[in-house]
Each structure stands twice: as structure tokens, then as C-alpha cells.
Specification:
Growth Hormone, Chain: A, transmembrane helix, transmembrane, MFS_sugar_transport-like, 3 domains, two-stranded antiparallel ribbon, two-stranded antiparallel sheet
Length: 580
């Protein structure tokens, strides 16, 4: 028998699991806000050079009796398209002759200069953003995207740091303090006096976000019986989906970056307050020689689930007999290097690196530049969030009936096909391009849903968090690299799409080499993983043993899980985490 059987004996997916999963999933509403916050915090308002200090646009408009927009032509030249005012240049001297209706002046020859008096920003879409506050336009425009890159760098660092810490100190402890860190650092970033200070706070906030996503996922998965994981995980991942739409609503309501920053981070104080109710993973406690605590935790779960009779039946001897193999394996400490030592672990890790990188690479390439679609950024965010709903149900159906491997590869191949198809749509067919982008985002979101689940099922308990942190690190590398690819648009407009789609195709090929985990119990040791690869696994059949309900222990170390394996995890962003 294994630990999964103990969960069934203390109530399966009972009242405790419902409360546990719901409370851990609630923060997912705000995780989407963290990952996509830069779309609104650093939104780019329409702008032009401010007029010289000795000129007032309003007074001049009254004096010449012309509209302010027409009067701007005297001070601001048109851009290269000729349809809009230039955002970064102004005339050295006002060109009053341009007010004449029949003016034939050659404006291309008129001397211009930079915006010596700063910029004037349109406030119809955003009241205040980091761009308008710190002038992140023209030559400083790269600093706008740098905020997101720095944040993702923090998420990457957090994946490395908190993945190892949680395997050492426990999922619950690291998760609780990650809530507090994000609450304090996130609200403090709203008080940032400068661009540099804000970037520092965002980096640290990104680390805390990683701690929440990774440990929330593991703590949730390790308390859910195998037969409930897919359906429960997929449904709870909707918290991240709805969080994307909530972000659009909050941003539209507030339209001020400092207020928005506080509103999306303050709820973390609430999550920190109730997170003390969580129970530590009993698996982790046993494997870290804290069996008495694990036993008390299982007794607590049994009572909450209405199984008080199990308190007397479930003893340390019963617990140890169910996890004897895992306890023996846990005497050794594990690091990220152990993920690459054996054949099975090495193959899994290399394939997951490709899948995580490409999924995040394509996802953030589509999701982090909403203003390019020519539609209201608030509406676009709602649409991008809404397409996740059918994507989640699609992932749920394929995960349950087709298995993890086909689902993962299929989502990546489909997203690549849609990205490639968008290359052949003319740029003036904006609606078609937007629809295809939404479909591409839907399949990358489904890929995120699948890979979070798949990773948790492939890595054994003794190194699961380290493995999650290691491979999700490459997801952050992908999210950091995605904006840089957009620069290739200046060389060839189709080049970014070719890169995003090509990466998805390559990752889909890697996914085909991963083992199937449908109907399989979670592996607890590296030996379990290697047995599956070598075909010696005994999970296909259930060996005989006396049920725990009869107060006795099976003599066998391995036992297959009953029923259909239904599992997933949230995020993100996946957002997010994601999401993450």
C-alpha cells in the first residue's frame, strides 16, 4: 500500500479537502494580477512633446479661434505615417504658417528638436502610469518593458530559492511567509519614489509570487486523492482565469498605477491570516522524519472528514508500513543535480525544460502587449481572460480521456499552428488577427494547465518541489525572452511569430517523449520513476493485502490507485501561475 490509500481511508476527497483546496486557490485571483500587472501599471498613454514654457495651448486656441488639436500642428510635426503627431519631436520654432488652410510648406525640411520640456500625456485611458510619471517614452521606452523583465527575473529567482526551501522546511511554512512577503513588498512598491526603487520591489515581489504558486500547487496536490486531482485541479485553475478579468475591471475602475498596485496586493494580508489553518503535507512530514506530526495531521483530517474511527486505527506502525519504501529512500538529501543523474529523471527533466520554456515563451509573447491590437486594453484583457474558460474545459476533457502526454503535445502543436496561420493574415484584417491571437493564447493557457499537472505527477515526492522549481525556472527564462523577440519585427514582420511557433513545435516534439501518468499513483522515490521507465513498475496491478479499515497492514510496498486518475493544478501563471 502507499500514501494514496491512507488518504482514501481518512475520507478521500472530503470536507477537509474541499476547504483546503478552496482556500489555497483563492489567492489565484490575485496571481493573474501580478503576472499581467505591467499591461496597466506601465500602460503607454498617447503623448506628444509639451509646448515651450512660454506658450499655453488653451490661451492660443482662444486667441486664434482654432481647435487645440489643430493648433498642435504648429508645434508638433507629424510622425512617419503622416496620420498622427510625432511622439518624440517638436519644431524648434512655432510654424504659424501651418494654420493656413492652403499652406504648402515642406514640413520635412523644418528643424526639430527633442522634447526639452517633457511630454503631455492623454489621460482618457490612463490617469497615471509609471510611463507618464517617470517619462518612460522615446529613448527611455525600453525601460517600460524592463519592469516586466525584472519582475520575471524575480519569479525565476524565487522558483530556484523557494523550490529548495520548501523541500527543506516544508510547503506550509514557505507558503505562509510568501503571502506576507508579497503583501508587504507589493504595497510598498506603490510608495516607490523612483523607477529604480519600484524595480527592486517588483523583483522581490516576483520571488514571493513564485513561493506562493509553487508551494500552493504542491500542498494542494499532496492532499488530494489520485481519482480527484484532474477535475479538482482544472476547476480551481479557473481562479486564475477569473483573476485576469478581475484585473481588467480593477484597472478600468482605478486607472491610477499606485492605487491599482495596492488593491491587487492588499488581499495577501487576508490570505496570510487564514493560511495558518493549512495542514503541512503528511507525505513531506513522514519523509523528513516527523512521523508523529504527520500522524496528528492525518487524525485531524479524519475528524474533519467525519471519520473519527480512523484515529484509533491509524497508528505510527500503520503509517510507516505504508511508506516504508519512501522513508528508506528519504535518508539521502536531494538537489537539482539529482534531476539529471539517472536515465529516467534526466529524460523527464530535459523534456519538461523544453515544454515549460516554450509554453511561457509563446504565452507572454501574446499576452504582454495588448495595446498592439487597436482595441481597448481593458476589453482585450477581458477577452484574453475569457478564452481561458473553454481552454480549461478542453484541457480537462483531454487530460481525463486522452492522457497527459497527448494533451501536452496537442496543445503545443495547436498553438503553433495558430501562430503560424496568423502570419498569412493581412495586417489590415485586425479582427481576424485578434481572434487568432486569442485562440493561440487559449491553447498556450491549456498547455500551462497541463504542464503544471504533468510536472507534479512525473517527479517523485522526495524531490518534487526541487523539480518543480528547477523546470519552472525555464518558464521564467521564456517569459523574460519573449519581449526581446518582438524587436525582430523590425527585420521581418513575420519573424516573431516564426520564433514563437517554432519553439512550440519543438516543445511538442519533446513532450511526445514523456511517460504517460494517467491512472498512475504519484511516485514517491526516484526508484519509482526508474522502475516505470524500465517497465518494472508494479502499479499496473494491486497486490493483495488487508485493508486498513480492518486495522491491518499490507505487506506490499506498492499498490496501484483505484479508479480514474483525475488531476491538474492551477496556474498560471500560470497565470500565470500562473501560471504563473
Amino acid at each position: 500500500m502507499g500514501f494514496t490509500d491512507l488518504l482514501e481511508e481518512v475520507g478521500g476527497f472530503g470536507r477537509y479537502q474541499w476547504l483546503h483546496v478552496t482556500l489555497i486557490s483563492f489567492p489565484g485571483l490575485m496571481m493573474a494580477s501580478q503576472n499581467l500587472l505591467n499591461n496597466f501599471i506601465s500602460g503607454m498613454p498617447t503623448h506628444h512633446c509639451s509646448l515651450p514654457t512660454n506658450h499655453s495651448l488653451h490661451n492660443l486656441s482662444l486667441f486664434y479661434q482654432v481647435e487645440e488639436q489643430q493648433l498642435l500642428r504648429v508645434f508638433i510635426p507629424p510622425d512617419s505615417s503622416g496620420s498622427r503627431l510625432d511622439r518624440c519631436r517638436r519644431y524648434v520654432e512655432p510654424q504659424w504658417q501651418l494654420l493656413a488652410a492652403n499652406s504648402s510648406a515642406n514640413i520635412s525640411q523644418l528643424p526639430t528638436e527633442g522634447c526639452l520640456d517633457g511630454w503631455t500625456f492623454d489621460r482618457s485611458e490612463f490617469l497615471s502610469t509609471t510611463v507618464s510619471e517617470w517619462g518612460l517614452v522615446c529613448s527611455l521606452r525600453p525601460l517600460k518593458q524592463m519592469i516586466q523583465t525584472i519582475y520575471m527575473g524575480g519569479v525565476l529567482t524565487g522558483a530556484i530559492v523557494f523550490g529548495g526551501l520548501s523541500d527543506r522546511f516544508g510547503r506550509r511554512s514557505v507558503l505562509i511567509w510568501s503571502y506576507l512577503l508579497l503583501a508587504v513588498l507589493g504595497c510598498s512598491s506603490a510608495l516607490s519614489p523612483s523607477y529604480s526603487a519600484y524595480c527592486i520591489f517588483r523583483f522581490l515581489s516576483g520571488m514571493a509570487v513564485s513561493g506562493i504558486i509553487l508551494n500552493g500547487v504542491s500542498l494542494k496536490v499532496e492532499w488530494i486523492p489520485t481519482k480527484s486531482r484532474t477535475i479538482v485541479g482544472t476547476l480551481t485553475s479557473f481562479f486564475f482565469t477569473f483573476g485576469q478579468m478581475i484585473l481588467a475591471g480593477l484597472a478600468y475602475w482605478l486607472r491610477d498605477w499606485r492605487k491599482l498596485q495596492v488593491v491587487v496586493c492588499a488581499p495577501q494580508f487576508l490570505f496570510f491570516t487564514y493560511s495558518w489553518w493549512y495542514s503541512e503535507s503528511a507525505r513531506w512530514l513522514v519523509l523528513n522524519r516527523r512521523s508523529e506530526e504527520a500522524l496528528k495531521t492525518l487524525h485531524r483530517v479524519a475528524r474533519i472528514n467525519g471519520k473519527p474511527e480512523m484515529v484509533n486505527k491509524l497508528t505510527l506502525e500503520v503509517l510507516h508500513s505504508h511508506m516504508s519504501k519512501e522513508i528508506e529512500s528519504s535518508h539521502s538529501s536531494f538537489t537539482a543535480f539529482d534531476l539529471l543523474k539517472t536515465r529516467g529523471m534526466r529524460r523527464i527533466s530535459i523534456c519538461l525544460i523544453a515544454v515549460w520554456f516554450s509554453t511561457s515563451f509563446a504565452y507572454y509573447g501574446l499576452a504582454m502587449d495588448l495595446q498592439k491590437f487597436g482595441v481597448s486594453i481593458y476589453l482585450m484583457q477581458i477577452i484574453f481572460g475569457a478564452v481561458d474558460i473553454p481552454a480549461k474545459f478542453f484541457a480537462l476533457a483531454t487530460l481525463s480521456y486522452l492522457g497527459r502526454r497527448i494533451s501536452q503535445a496537442g496543445c503545443l502543436f495547436l498553438s503553433a499552428a495558430i501562430i503560424f496561420a496568423n502570419i498569412f493574415v493581412p495586417s489590415d484584417m485586425q479582427t481576424v488577427r485578434t481572434v487568432l491571437a486569442c485562440l493561440g493564447k487559449a491553447f498556450t493557457s491549456a498547455s500551462f494547465t497541463t504542464v503544471y499537472l504533468y510536472t507534479g505527477e512525473l517527479y517523485p515526492t522526495v524531490i518534487r518541489q526541487t523539480g518543480m522549481g528547477f523546470v519552472s525556472t525555464f518558464s521564467r527564462v521564456g517569459s523574460m525572452a519573449a519581449p526581446a523577440v518582438l524587436i525582430l519585427d523590425e527585420i521581418l514582420p513575420a519573424l516573431p511569430s516564426l520564433v514563437y511557433g517554432g519553439a512550440a513545435v519543438l516543445a511538442g516534439c519533446f513532450a511526445c517523449f514523456l511517460p504517460e501518468t494517467l491512472n498512475m499513483p504519484l511516485p514517491d522515490t526516484i526508484e519509482d520513476v526508474e522502475e516505470k521507465w524500465s517497465g518494472r513498475s508494479s502499479v499496473s496491478g494491486q497486490k493483495e493485502g488487508v485493508s486498513l479499515k480492518e486495522g491491518m497492514v499490507s505487506t506490499d510496498g506498492l499498490m496501484s490507485d483505484e479508479g480514474v486518475a483525475l488531476k491538474e493544478l492551477k496556474e498560471t501563471e500560470g497565470s500565470g501561475l500562473n501560471a504563473l
